[in-house]
Each structure stands twice: as structure tokens, then as C-alpha cells.
Amino acid sequence: MAKLKYNKDGRVLFTKEMKKEYTILCPMMAPIHFRLIINVFRNCGYNFELLTSTGPNIVQEGLKYVHNDAC
Q1: 15 part of a folded domain
Q2: Number of domains composing the chain
Q3: pLDDT tens for residues 4-43?
Q4: Does any domain span residue 59?
Q5: How confident is the model at residue 70 (pLDDT cuts 50, 70, 90)?
Q6: Among 6, 60, 53, which residue's Cα sits nearest to residue 25?
Q7: pTM over 0.85, yes/no
Q8: Is 39 inside any structural domain?
């Protein structure tokens, strides 16, 4: 697993090793556009998954992993 690197402010930096090992999870916001974006990220070598789940539990799942203002 890629070793975490931090900037001077303590934020985690995204490294080339992470590009190979980590997966970017993206919520479905605009179906037509995001299906195109999947291919752009994958063609650039990123592991990218579009989250297509819907329903009342999806909000709670988002709040579990993301800061409240972003979800």
C-alpha cells in the first residue's frame, strides 16, 4: 500500500502510487456527463467508480464517509 505523504498544512498528498492502488468513488450527479467522465479518468490510469445507488439510505451512507457540507 502506498505510503501517505503530507504537505506542510497536514493534508494528504495524492501520489502516483495512490493512483494505482486507490479508487475514486464518485456520486451520480448528471448521468450523461458522468458516464463520459468515467472513461476520461480510466483512460488517464485512475481507478474510478461511479456510485449509482439511490434511495433513502444513500444519504446516510454519504454522511458516514463525507463531511456534512459536502454530502
Answers
A1: no
A2: 1
A3: 999 999 999 999 899 989 999 888 777 788 888 899 999 9
A4: yes
A5: low
A6: 53
A7: no
A8: yes
Nearest CA among 27, 15, 41, 23 for reference residue 71: 27
Residue 6: inside a domain, yes or no? no
Q: Checking DSSP bridges between strand 23-27 and strand 5-6, what pairing results, if any? A: unpaired
- 15: which 3 cell numbers? 501520489
For residue 34, the enclosing domain spans 21-71
Task: Give the residue carrying C-alpha cell 454530502.
Answer: 71
The average pLDDT across 43-68 equals 80
> Pick from 29, 6, 61, 2: which is nearest to 37 by CA?
29
Report yes or no: 18 and 46 within 8 Å, Cβ to Cβ: no
